[in-house]
Each structure stands twice: as C-alpha cells, then as structure tokens.
Amino acid sequence: MKSETMKKVTEGIVRGHVLDTAGCTDKAADELEKVLETILFEISDCVNPVPEIASDLTVGVLRFIADTLEKNLNDKEKETAELKRTRLLTAYAYATSEQNASGGMIVTAPTCGASGVLPAVLYYLYKQENVNEAKILEGLAIAGLIGNLVKTNASISGAECGCQAEIGTACSMAAAAYAYIKGYSIDVIECAAEIAMEHHLGLTCDPIYGYVQIPCIERNAVAAIRAIDSANMASLLYKDSKISFDLVVETMYETGKDLGSHYRETSKGGLAKKYCRNKFYNDNLEEE
Questions:
Q1: Of 174, 189, 162, which Cα lies nearest the Cα of 244?
Q2: Helix (H) or strand (E) run with residue 175 in it
Q3: Residue of 275 and 182 predicted with greater confidence
Q4: Closest Cα to residue 151, out of 141, 138, 166?
Q5: CA-to-CA dists, residue 24 to 7, 32, 145, 176, angstroms
Q6: Which alpha helices (DSSP H) does 1-71 contain, by range?
Q7: Tell me, what's the pLDDT at 12?
Q8: Is 254 helix (H, G, I), strand (E, B) or coil?
Q9: CB-based contacts of 53, cutoff 8 Å, min separation 6
Q10: pTM for the whole structure
Q11: Which of 245, 243, 128 lies closest to 175, judged by CA?
C-alpha cells in the first residue's frame, strides 16, 4: 500500500535528482554537506579519542566505551562477520550518543536522544563499505524527508509520544537512507521506513535518573542494527506489504497520546522507576 506522501517526496528519486526532490536549494544542499561533515567528524573523533582525554570519560552513570568497541580489544580472531557488523554499528552509535551525553557536538537525527542511529548507519556505509560521500549525502537527504514527514504529520518528541517518536523515527530515517543507498526501489524504501517504525510502536521513554544514557545509548545501537535489517527485510516483503508509512506514522502518534505521562520522558515509570526506587520517588511516584 503506497503512502501518498511517500509517493510525492520520492517520485524524483528514479530520475536521479534526490536533492532536487528533497526541495534542496543550493543553500540547503550546502547545509546538508555541513551536517554530513559533522556526522563523520563526530564519530571519528569519538572512536579515536585523544589519549589523555579518553583515560577517564565518565558522565552521569556511564563510562564511555565507543573507542574500545571500535578497536575491539578482545578476541578479534574469533569474531564472525555478523558480530563485526554488530560491534561496529554499536561503536558508531555509542560514539554519537556519548557525545550527546557529555554535551558535545551532535546532529539531531531527529532528536538529541536518538542522534546515534542515522549517523551509525551512514558512517558504517562510508567506512566499511566504501560508499562515497556524494551517495551518503543523497541518503542523508532521503532520511531528512522521512524525519520531516513524521515531524509534520505526527511528532518526534519523546515528551509528547514516548521513545517511539524519537528512536522509531530515527530508525525509519536510517532504514530509508540505507535502502536508497543500496539501490532499492521506491516501494522498498517506503517499506523499510514502515517496518522500522512499526516495530517501535509503544516504545516508552523512561531514562534512568533523567540522563539520556540508560536505556537511550544502547537503544540507539539496537535501532541502527534494526534499521539495516528493516531495509533488507523490506526488499523481501515489500510486494506483500499491507501497512503504509502514512498509516504507521498516524498510529504512532495516536499510541503516543495514549501513553501515560510516566512513560513520556518524566523518569517516573518503567526502567527509571524500577532502577531508582527509593532513591528519588516514593511508591506514589511523588518526588521526595
């Protein structure tokens, strides 16, 4: 089932005018290039930190580990290709998320809390599959279209609709970008974005201690891996797809409105409540 909005924003892709299709003026295209430059720099900087700074990177409740993950200081000989992909995507997602947690420079994609998903996928393609920057830039434009669709027709705010609106949208953006860069059709691109969002429906936002760390950082890595899997699944399933991207976005918004406030960034429910019990809140979830 083809989404009307997806049809409109992707119709020019087959003609090879991705940036034009995205409504990019020369100025907007320049801005996209700056965004990509920041993404590539921020991850590279985090997985190759300055030694004296990297010695004790601890903020909130987590110690930074992106550089250790990227270098794989454990047993490389026993690492399978599948495990290597998981390790690197995790390292790249952690790199951006750790930057966010420490107040460093990031690209909201579409938010600070979900800023590690799209950069991880794009950086993986750039570093591990040698995709050139021009193609990565086009994928970034596609991701931006998806993010703007969700922002316009629903919400990308965890405070409004839970983490499904943040990580769900980020995963859809990354899945669509990956599908485009891999040369999949418009139908597969939409299906990839839909699958990515559909399987984040109902996801709560319950950060421990209010920090954008647990479960946020690990969740970015999971979503980056899921984005690639969503795109690959879409290439197999798109002909039988019954759910459009428009429909799943509308569903996400309605689901978010149904979520109690405890599950929308207040840290008064879910993991935050369980982990922090007797530290900040009493049994009635009232601040002590």
A1: 189
A2: helix 169-181
A3: 182
A4: 166
A5: 18, 9, 11, 18
A6: 4-10, 18-21, 26-47, 51-54, 66-71
A7: 47
A8: helix
A9: none
A10: 0.85
A11: 245
The contacts of residue 74 (CB under 8 Å, 6+ apart) are: none
Q: Which of 167, 194, 31 is nearest to 109 (CA)?
A: 167
Side chain identity at residue 224, one-letter code:
A
Helical axes 81-101 vs 117-128, angle rounded to 10°: 130
Number of residues that make up the chain? 288
pLDDT tens by residue, 137-193: 889 889 988 998 999 999 999 999 999 999 999 999 999 999 999 999 999 999 999
Could you read off the pLDDT of 196-222 as tens digits, one per residue?
999 999 999 999 888 888 899 999 999
Q: How far apart are CA 73 and CA 195, in angstroms?
A: 34
Lookup: tokens for 203: 């996801």
Under the banding of pLDDT at 50, 70 and 90, the label for residue 71 is confident
Residue identified by tokens 């750039």 is 126
Which of 160, 152, 258, 262 minimizes the C-alpha distance to 202? 258
218-219-222-223 Cα dihedral, nearest 10 degrees = -140
DSSP letters spanning 93-114? HHHHHHHHHTT-----SS-STT
Beta bridge partners of residue 209, listed in sequence order: none
The two tokens of residue 156 are: 């990308």
Expressed in percent and rounded to 5, the helix, strand and coil fractions of the chain are: 65, 5, 30
